[in-house]
Automatic annotation (TrEMBL):
Organism annotation: Pseudomonas mangrovi
Keyword Magnesium on entry: no
Database matches in InterPro entries: N2O_reductase_NosL
Signal peptide: 1-22
Taxonomy, superkingdom: Bacteria
Name of protein: NosL protein
Length: 171
């Protein structure tokens, strides 16, 4: 019996040895809140001075914040910024007010639904409403005679269309 007990103990130690964490898991990247005084990475404007959803790109711990979704995507569409390691975030506008998007509801832009809404005020480029759910995006598209797009359907020409006259803010 002692031999069986020793064998069991040795086997148990082998099993426990396999429970050590191998390599450290990659750090989970989370979006950062926007603060008064944050400046757009591209144009330098004060981000919180403008309504509408904002964007941010995070790579290797560096957070780049943008005054609009169009400004962030315009930056990201440049070939030198197309790294897959860049995490892109936008506001889920189904969970916030256009005048003051809720930073508690920043979502992965690669999974988001986009709706061009030139009649709404925004910062730089085409105002884009962003949503986590297709249903919310469809409702916005219907209300603004627009259509729902995914990230891979957006290009620089779409992003650079200006907001409606009188709605575009400059500083």
């Amino acid at each position: 019996m002692p031999r069986l007990l020793r064998a069991f103990a040795a086997f148990s130690l082998l099993l426990l040895g396999g429970c050590e964490p191998a390599a450290e898991a990659p750090a989970v990247v989370t979006a950062a809140p926007f603060h008064e005084g944050d400046e757009c990475h591209v144009c330098g404007m004060a981000i919180t001075d403008f309504p509408g959803p904002k964007g941010q790109a995070i790579e290797r711990g560096e957070v780049r914040k943008f005054c609009s979704v169009a400004e962030m995507l315009g930056w990201w569409l440049q070939p030198e910024n197309q790294a897959q390691s860049v995490s892109l975030y936008v506001h889920d506008m189904a969970q916030g007010d256009w005048a003051a998007p809720d930073d508690a509801h920043l979502i992965d832009a690669r999974e988001a639904y986009f709706v061009a809404v030139p009649s709404l005020p925004g910062a730089m480029g085409q105002p884009l409403a962003t949503f986590a759910s297709e249903e919310s995006a469809q409702a916005m598209a219907k209300a603004h005679q627009s259509k729902v797009l995914r990230l891979d359907q957006l290009d620089l020409a779409t992003l650079q269309q200006p907001a409606a006259a009188g709605q575009h803010h400059h500083h």
